Amino acid sequence: MLDQAHMTSLFENATEGIILTNGQGKIVLANPAAERMFGYSDEELRNLPVEVLIPGNFRTGHKSLREGFHKNPSNRSMGAGRDLFALKKNGEEFPVEISLSYYTKDDELFVIAFIVDITLRKEIEKNLVKKQNELEKVTYEIRKLNTELERKVDERTYILKEALEKLEQSQTELHEALDKEKQLNEIKSRFVSMASHEFRTPLSAVLSSAALLSKYTKDDEQEKRDKHIGRIKDSVKHLNDILEDFLSLGKLDEGRISADPHEFNLEEMVNETLADVKVVLKPGQKFLLNFEGQVAINADKKLLRNILINLLSNAAKFSPEDSPIEIMVKSEPEQAMITVKDYGIGISEKDQEHLFNMFYRASNVTNIQGTGLGLHIVKRYLDLIRGTVNLRSRLGKGTAITITFPNKSNENS
């Protein structure tokens, strides 16, 4: 056991404030950290009711809470689910976290309060919310410009096709298209300066392909034109995916996305999603579906569909051409499981433990486009529907991700 000197050192040097009160709620002892925190000396605090450290509008309620604790004491944290504030000697209020413990001596109950000043943490949280709001505003503006960019790209494509049919007559139209493209370049350049690397990469692809289009004016250069038009469309789609990820993250952080379970046909939803995602498959890739169990399930269809789209897109992105992507669904009365398995590049054990963290990307995919938000959002969506995710992967062998979620149709039966 620790001797008295060690105990005294722990009390005197603890970074948390420690206050001891007796059965009447009066302060018996306070450590130096508590004295500094509240602006009192030890002599000033002794024998004062603990309510002097509580803002006036909370004192009446605290007395009854204190009496209730004395009747049924337990080691616990105070104020679960709400903010707590303390009062300094100079009248200044500040946010705190408080944990309670107790012991009995000579039939008298003594309560120990461990107090942490969380003013700095609250300021950081406030700044994070502010930054998140600013980010959402910026992403909203970029999304608007992205929509305009898609419209402009479609317009350029139409003009170029017309130029092929009437090359001699379309020379003027082609110059006009290039002038408008320069205007788009200026708009994109302004946003490149405010965006991260993931925005710069697809925008650079759009700019370079658009500039090269002007060099291919001969009839036999259609294949080259189509190649660059395809690059432009792929980059625009990638930008839109990035924006959707940022917007989804912002909505999740603000609590604007919630689960809305209802009954639907799970097998039908999976097949519809596979049909929609086929556009991202590489040459020779194909989906292989194995469905077992009941087709009717009660869950949030929209969130599940978004989760499945993300997993299928990742499987296609990180797998080679001519490789299968297996989807195994097992639907039971109480829960359902969906596994998406690919035979792609795989993930190292070191990376796997961080893979669901925000903005984290595995070390072997740095040359592949992505925001590092997809699996993080999947995890957040699963939390909303009380689901879980399990990942198994080996480098060079592929990855299998299994999501498990409850069938709520039986909860009230």
Report helical residue fraction.
Answer: 40-55%
Sheet/helix structural class: alpha+beta
Total of DSSP H or I helical runs spanning 4+ residues: 12
- What is the fold named in CATH at topology level of the largest domain? Heat Shock Protein 90
- Domain module count: 3
Proportion in β-strands: 15-25%
What is the global morphology? elongated
Integer-rounded radius of gyration: 31 Å
CATH C-level name of the largest domain: Alpha Beta
* CATH level-4 homologous superfamily of the largest domain: Histidine kinase-like ATPase, C-terminal domain
Q: N- to C-terminal separation?
A: 55 Å
Q: Average pLDDT value?
A: 79
- Write the CATH architecture name of the largest domain: 2-Layer Sandwich
- Biggest sheet overview: 6 strands, antiparallel
**H/E element string?**
HEEHHHEEEEHHHHEHEEHEEHHEE
- Count of beta strands: 13
Provide the low-confidence segments as ranges: 183-198
Walkthrough of the structure:
The chain is an alpha+beta fold and 413 residues long. 48% of the residues lie in helices and 21% in strands. The strands form three sheets. Strands 1, 2, 3, 4, 5 and 6 form a six-stranded antiparallel β-sheet that branches. A five-stranded mixed β-sheet has the order 8-10-11-13-12, with helices on one face. Strands 7-9 form a two-stranded antiparallel ribbon. Strand 1 and strand 2 form a beta hairpin. Helix 5 packs antiparallel against helix 6, helix 5 runs antiparallel to helix 8 and helix 9 packs parallel to helix 10.
